[in-house]
Amino acid sequence: MAKKSLQLGRAVEWPHTPEEAQLDRVPNPQKGTDYLVRFTVPEFTSLCPVTGQPDFAHLMIDYAPGAWLLESKSLKLYIASFRNHGAFHEDCTVMIGKRIASEIKPKFLRIGGYWYPRGGIPIDVFWQTGRVPKGLWVPEQGVAPYRGRG
Which residues are the active-site ones (predicted)? Predict the structure, then answer.
């Protein structure tokens, strides 16, 4: 099956599911340099697969590009495709990390899913592809653990 053309610079329909969403990559003009790219997704939404109630998270995606960069419009469309997708917090977080890693083959990728409480319990989920490249500055993700009223 031939890869579709880039979604950048043209109107596209919002994908209905994560499986039908297209993640685009573009050539990295600095592929000989180790550096970190961070995507912050403060309003991630999916559905509880049991109750159908909405779940909310703050996602932090950090990656060290290899030959490819993740195109941000396609990431926005992919993230939006979870809005009506039922999956547990752990599944959503790891699924997103694995899909991005599969598409762009970064030198390193990590994702932090900081989920807001449901049933009184916040859940944080973390996944990464391997070791951080030597000498690469990877700042803390900066999302405070949930403290409730404290």
Answer: 48 (thioimide intermediate), 55 (proton donor)
For the annotated binding site for substrate, the residues are: 70-72, 89-90
In a domain, 136, yes or no: no
pLDDT digits (tens, 9 = 90+) for 30-64: 999 999 999 999 999 999 999 999 999 999 999 99
Asked whether residue 142 is assigned to any structural domain, the reply reads: no
Pairing type for strands 68-70 and 25-27 reads: antiparallel
Catalytic one among 24, 55, 62, 92?
Answer: 55
- Identify the active-site residue in 48, 91, 92, 124: 48
Looking at the structure of the chain, the number of domains it has is: 1
**Residue 75 belongs to domain with CATH number:** 3.30.1130.10
pLDDT tens digits, one per residue of 12-31: 999 999 999 999 999 999 99
User: 48 lies in a domain?
Assistant: yes
Asked if residue 85 lies in contact with residue 46, where contact means CB atoms within 8 angstroms, the answer is yes
Q: Is the pTM of this model over 0.70?
A: yes
**Is residue 55 annotated as part of the catalytic site, yes or no?**
yes
Residue 56 lies in domain: 42-120
Collect all residues with Cβ–Cβ distance below 8 Å to 1 and sequence separation of at least 6.
Answer: none
Tell whether 113 is covered by a domain: yes
